[in-house]
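Researcher: Let's continue the batch. This sequence belongs to Glycosyl hydrolase family 20, domain 2, and it's 710 residues. Same format as the previous ones, please.
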Amino acid sequence: MRIKTYYGILSIITFVFVASCTDNNLKVDLQINNDETPVQLAVGKFEEMVTEKNIEISAADPDLIISGKIDTSLTSEDAYSIRQRGKNINITAGGSTGTVYGLNHVREQLEQGKRELSHVDESPHYSFRAIKFNLPWSSYRRSEALQLHYETCRDTVFWKSFLDMMVENRFNKLTLWNLHPFNYLVRTKSYPEANSMSNEEFAEWRQFWTTLFRMAKDRGIETYLVNWNIFVSPEFAKAHNVATYSIDGNYFTDGDTSAIIKDYTRESVKQVIDEYPDLTGLGITLGEAMFGMGAEEREQWLLDGYIKGAREASRKIKFIHRVPLTKGEGDSNSMASVEQITRKTLDTLTVFEGPIIIELKYNWSHGHSSPNLFKVHGGKLTDAYWNPPPTNYKLSWMVRNEDFFMLRWGQPDFIRKHIELNNQDYVTGYFVGSETYIPAVDYFTAGEKGSWKYAFERQWMFYKQWGRLLYNPDTPDEFFANTFESRFPENGNSLFEAQSLIGKVPLIIASYWDATWDYALYSEGMSSILENQNTMKLISLKQLAEKTPMDTLLMSVQEYVNKIESNSTLSKKISPHEMADSIETFCKRAIDLVSPIQTDNSVDLVYEKTDILTWANLGLYFAHKLRSAVAYQQFVNSGNQDFHKQAIHHLEKATNCWEQVSLLTSDLYKTVPLQHYNRNEGKYFHWNKVFKEVKNELDWLKNEVHKKEN
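Model: Same format as before. Here are the structure tokens for Glycosyl hydrolase family 20, domain 2:
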């Protein structure tokens, strides 16, 4: 049999682990003469670390002296270098952020037991390393799964933790998304009716935003508010009988381009810029509630409202222009023409502090699929945005995750490959985040929690790998392995290797499934909503057999069966059987790695191990189901009952794997609201609930032979 690999799915990861520190008498003299707030906060984090490790901060006869200086000739404010000579460790940085990263680098090395540091020269690969964070108020999607985060997202204690995580992982942009943020920020002079809050309530909101923007700035993080175009506050809509979609949530409709809405938008933009000096920028997403508008009208709307307000403001801000994802209903322009029209506007915008950032979804709403670009939201993309090369803007790709929220994930090779394929001069970075999930309240964990408080802390490796690799894609596996080892001594090696293996499971599923919008796939639950349907269901055997994969490296079941039946030469694509064999190989390897781990009394270790085992069994389920789909298609084509028996055999194996998933997750995970289910049906998710569909499908397959005979 030919042996093929799909983005390294058969690769085995190796690394060198550095033993943890046993010297508890280390004295460190910290000579960082920089009083800028980001640096002082990093010094505070350093002092917390050494206290935990029983390392003494002392200027008296120190073992290590850590000093820092600024060198503005470095390529970026985020750049830094480290040199050690004897006991002197010198950090040279391009600015305060580089000093923070350099100091954090030294802290990480000491945490991992190192005392002799290698020379380091680091500078950011991408300057735009952003988190997409959807807010639960005036949210684009609405359901219990999102609204339950309301109070937590109003709590600056939560944001302190989240922002500190961003700094730790070298994310430098926080983008906050909702339909209409302005009435939560300002009470406009001309339209006070748009805000019905009491003075006391509004003062609390103002204090919240002021504190959040300042906290981010104090950490060297830029903040952006991104809204959806012609939406207004419900109070404004009711008062003026305009934009009723702002009340009823019917986004897929014609936009209300009333003069009063343009003026309200203009004034809102101006006041937000003027009243919140620590806010870095704003963003707009042209699409929803614009169905009756052509490309020219959409861009004119932007100029008449948003841009006019920005011009009238007292300072320049930065700007994110989410370029049109589809053309408006009735728009006579082709999508290629829409891109050209949008580019014309972008090329002439000079009111903002540049460069403008344009955003496009990588492989639609499921960026955690193939690292190769096959489509954006709406389908194919021309080269209009980068040919000829832009001078006024840069592109940042949106890698959405609507596929896994509960199970911990990491896969550094996938992220590195993404970056390798998107090294063009016009690309300045990435957004990473979700539309259907807010990483605030941990509403997943059943029973005792571990060291984490918030949901994002459960996915610590997800953020660490995305952030650190966007900053430096050459960050080695050894770094991530050592961070595992710092948390789980003697088990970090196995945990890192196993997670890197099973981290491929959702990527392969999404690459095969060819999902589009948000609910078209939920890889963690092996479920999908198909077009013209309204219910999230288990991906069926028939659907799998009929599916044409998104990734052109992968062969469909039908193509494979047709070639076998016609004795045709197999193509260079990876066949379903080869894919299944590969998945089974690395999933079993992951199980072998973590099964011997004794979790003792560590709740954190229980979840890390169980999540790996759960992903592995989900991968095995998919592998067995692929084999069953091949045999089923052969049975459909020929009526040969031997193929039917093979299909049942493989699906029975798949069902057993799902039973393992149910057993692993029953006591550790709650049955939870899920946006994919919860929007209309009020249904909740757990793998146990899906197990009923899994068993029903096996019963269905067993009965198919009788239908064929009749």
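Researcher: Any comment?
Model: The mean pLDDT is 92.
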